[in-house]
Amino acid sequence: MPLENSFYTAEMQGPYVTVPLGRFELEEGGVIEELELAVATYGELNKAKDNAILVPTWFSGTHATWWQVYIGPGRALDPEKYFIVVVNQIGNGLSTSPHTTGDASIAMERFPHVRIGDDVRAQEQLLREKYGVERLALVVGGSMGAQQTWEWAVRFPDKVQRAAPIAGTAQNTPHDFLFTQTLMDAITSDPAWAGGRYTSHADVADGLRRHADIWAVMGLTTDFWKSGFWKDLPPVVEGLGWSTFEEFQQNFTRLLFGLMDPNALLTMGWKWQRGDVARNAGGDLAAALGRVSAKTFVMPIDSDMFFPPRDCEAEQQLTPGAELRVLPSIAGHFGLFGFEQTYLDAVDAHLRELLEAEV
Amino acid sequence: MPLENSFYTAEMQGPYVTVPLGRFELEEGGVIEELELAVATYGELNKAKDNAILVPTWFSGTHATWWQVYIGPGRALDPEKYFIVVVNQIGNGLSTSPHTTGDASIAMERFPHVRIGDDVRAQEQLLREKYGVERLALVVGGSMGAQQTWEWAVRFPDKVQRAAPIAGTAQNTPHDFLFTQTLMDAITSDPAWAGGRYTSHADVADGLRRHADIWAVMGLTTDFWKSGFWKDLPPVVEGLGWSTFEEFQQNFTRLLFGLMDPNALLTMGWKWQRGDVARNAGGDLAAALGRVSAKTFVMPIDSDMFFPPRDCEAEQQLTPGAELRVLPSIAGHFGLFGFEQTYLDAVDAHLRELLEAEV
Fold first, then answer.
1. Which value, in Å, is the radius of gyration of the alpha carbons in chain B?
2. Is the complex ipTM higher than 0.90?
3. For residue range A127-171, what is the model confidence (pLDDT) as tens digits?
4. CB B217 to CB A185 under 8 A?
5. Which of A294, B58, B318, B350 would disulfide-bridge A160, Cβ 3.0–4.6 Å?
6. Which residues in chain A are closer than 8 Å to B214, comparing Cβ atoms?
């Protein structure tokens, strides 16, 4: 029985379609008998089918932030020029996920391990079968979306003309593995998680709160919290604003992450920990990145505490022709939410330049 | 009944003496009827009593790291020239602490809240009554030791000739408050913590492990973990080395923090969260720091994720005549452990210059 959770609805996230891909074999050996991807598209595919942009989603995210913050007429991701396909990652609560699947063999704690490579293969199948797209003008994604962007560029070099991994790495670092584990442990240490067999995400409120609180520390920055920058942000829920940082924590990070499904977060966390394009080249990161033929802008956020620019720069330097474009934000990794116009302007300027580049 | 814990012994930490200070009233309203400070001294007090250096300890720390890493003949903190007094902070497991006190009214979960100002007042009393020291050549401490160093310089400006707060702030930031809370919640969310009424720290192993794992993420850095820097570090316990980062986590951070007492960590965590010299000036940080007359070197560590140089620099700029001396380390906040000779050389150079400065 799928669990009810209003967070994972079109009402909360914006319209999307569910596309069945049939039986899908996972890299770790599991099988999803009827894989469904939740897909939101903006704009129209042209006749040449060469104006498609793919956007894979980040940890805990959906397509929502993309249409709310990154996509729009006059923006770099302009639906009047491009056919923009945002694909929710497997296990994120909208695509096939532990708490929503009707297939008892993979429901809840039985959900199989999914890898970044699985998402990318499923997305490739989706684009080819559903839209007849064989080549992408751009793949762009943030965080775990950057992991998928890198995987696309390495795995399908002929299909990716341009790539923009934002605030994420091609090969997850040990530090990020450890960080993600603290997020997962915050959830699984809650007795109410019950080995993944809870009956409502609300039962796991304590674990979700601790998970959110670690995000508040690692996702944001000392400057963000100290500056009072958050004071001017619009509330997530009407009437639940904030005048102290404790209230911001309560009504932003705790509220938002508290709406989510624990097993979905764990599925994504496990996947994040193991993102590594070097798997495509026998463990050789330089060889894997050497395969990239896409024009690539590597775009870390300057104040990001767990995907710092230096880690992203190391990968940029291994990628033929890639350029480093550092994005400014006071909000660390959560700069991805697009709190600042300066950040959004920088993203747009770089993506516009990338999209206009000859390839 | 005090709990047994071999971590808090002279065998593990090095020799120290226990100095009774009598009845001690705490700023939050609690009382410790017989406050005892665990004190380790190195070198001799001269006749003029003007060669004393005070070192307060950091969160989870004791005097051990100081004699092992920072103090020695030929070093800036030279026991052949100075009388160096390392005072274990209240609640750290060696000075009066929840799990060691014989006073049932303050044992375990009944231990009262202690503030940075309490430690500093107790240290002032200790120096005056026990050693007849009215003026310190230097106060130097790292992290929570830096909080105490700042508090000394603001509260007793006439008694502090020089101050060197390393990797810590005068006023705790919101981000650090939130970070410290995640450390504390990792412990208190363990059902075995039992509201502070456990019968052995080992019972709280799960909570201590999650606490250590958050430290592994925030205390160190992506570079530290990725570089393999840790490979060359000597093991904490003979025979328990490491060849993978998971083993380093197991045999370094988990092992070390797993030896400690949960209530001691919580006492220190609560104190850390509320470190704020502005309390001495009606909440006005600039006014408080304006009182400092000590020659002050503010010494953040360049890669520190929660006391970043920019936060320390903001306080340095409010302090008359203070200078910013940034220390280099790949290890973030845990650079304090002195893993790198380059770091230690920088500390020594700055402290030597400070100690030689006319005041």
1. 19
2. yes
3. 999 999 999 999 999 999 999 999 999 999 999 999 999 999 999
4. no
5. A294
6. 182, 214
